[in-house]
Amino acid sequence: MMMGALSKYIFYPAWDLKDGSQRLLEWRQLEKQQWWTQDKLNDLQLNRLNALLTYAEKHSPYYRDLFKQHGVKAADIKTLKDIERIPVTTKQAIRNGGDRFISDEFVRTQLVSAKTGGSTGVSLNLYFDETCQEKRNAAQLMADRWSGWDLGMKRASVWGNPPVPESVKQKLRHNLLDRTIYLDTMDLNDRSMGAFVSRWRKEKPGAVFGHAHSIYIFAKYLLQENITDLRPQGIVATSMMLLEHERKTIEKAFDCNVTNRYGCEEVGLIACECERHSGMHINVPHVYVEFLDANNNPVAPGDPGKIVVTDLNNFAMPLIRYRVEDVGVYSDLTCECGRGFPLLEKLEGRVADFLRLPDGGQVAGISLVERTLTKVPGIEQMQLIQEQIDEVAINRVRGPEYTDATDEELEKSMREVFGEDVALTINDVKEIPQEASGKYRFSICRVTQ
């Protein structure tokens, strides 16, 4: 308790002050803005959108050319609906456009960078300025507090490829601010989950964060072993679509409500449930979200639509009307909590299959694909298909950096997870076919339990 209080009231402010960060300042603004009326929030969005479009028109080569090509001027966008005059940006456009998205006022090597595989298995190189990153972190602080977590509270994270602090600064941050223990989803089995329970009892985290399905697997283990003393104050499920039966199992195992959160590496937090759990509040100060049909026209509230997001924070690499390749249902209802943030009623099509290991364990497909795409150069897209417990097919699309060594590194990376007893077949394909929903399945498991 003492360490939590020190972290919240001393270490968090001191760290921001030392780094000259805007994170806590932005968080305090968000804490106020969440209670604004929708009209006031719409005005805020329009002002921020106009600032972004004006900047992108002048400084982003990609959008400068796109605007000219389609006869669009930033000054012509006078209402939020006017943004529909700008074409949708796809993942492939980002891959093809590369550095042309980046503002000419920034040097790429000086930006915060990320490479993501994501749930679609498409690798993207992304860049953010530090202010954008700080604002994203602030939004996460706000949303995490809706779950019952608070600044300084220790976390239990069910996540793949947990970071290992190496430098003195990283170790200090890990112990003073992040305060997180990890259950690695790359190695989910009775042994690893049992060890995590033991560490939990020693460290006593106050909140759980992680892949929705991974938390579900851990919850099933707790119920199976009749472990009833792990009682967090909050649970945040993200990265995968949270299914209702998974929510019920998790809540039964932990005796705590689950908070469903939705975001992506490209734009940060998109939406999150509040304590009422009646839909996910859209992070309107930071993102403008549209729901479109197959012809890129807006769908009616209550109808499924392709989610298209404009990041209002990232000026270094603007993403305007970016299709994240998820499908969601927008609601025109208001939440009883009183917040002005509108609601994303539900997500459709973010289900990730888990692959099975010969020793009885499971591996989260999203963790495996993300790790491989970020670790092995030369892969544009990949899909894993498991027909038998001892066979995994890897459909691999060559990327610009592909060399003769790519497949060797790919197999080596896979062997670290599946061992030598699983037959791995790498298929050279030109593209990964989409499902009828328009989604890509990065991981398909047909092995019955």
Give me a quick take on this structure:
The protein is α/β, with parallel strands linked by helices and 449 residues long. The chain has 12 helices and 19 strands.
Description:
By secondary structure, the protein is an alpha/beta fold. It has helices at residues 2-19, 23-33, 38-59, 61-69, 91-97, 130-147, 168-178, 190-203, 212-224, 244-254, 365-375, 406-418, and strands at 112-116, 124-128, 155-159, 180-184, 207-211, 234-238, 258-264, 268-273, 280-282, 287-292, 304-311, 322-331, 343-348, 354-356, 362-364, 379-388, 391-398, 423-428, 443-445. The strands form 4 sheets. Strands 4-3-5-6-7-8-9-13-12-11-10 form an 11-stranded mixed β-sheet, sandwiched between helices. A 4-stranded mixed β-sheet has the order 18-17-16-19, with helices on one face. α2 crosses α6 (130-147), α3 crosses α4 (61-69) and α9 crosses α10 (244-254).
How far apart are the termini?
A: 43 Å
Question: Which term fits the overall shape?
Answer: globular
Low-confidence stretches: none
Give the % helix. Answer: 25-40%
Strand count, sense and closure of the main sheet?
11 strands, mixed
Question: How many β strands by DSSP?
Answer: 19
Task: Bin the strand percentage.
Answer: 15-25%
The whole-number mean of residue pLDDT values reads 88
- Strand-pairing-aware structural class: alpha/beta
Radius of gyration: 22 Å
Q: Strand order across the biggest sheet? A: 4-3-5-6-7-8-9-13-12-11-10
Structure annotation, total helices? 12
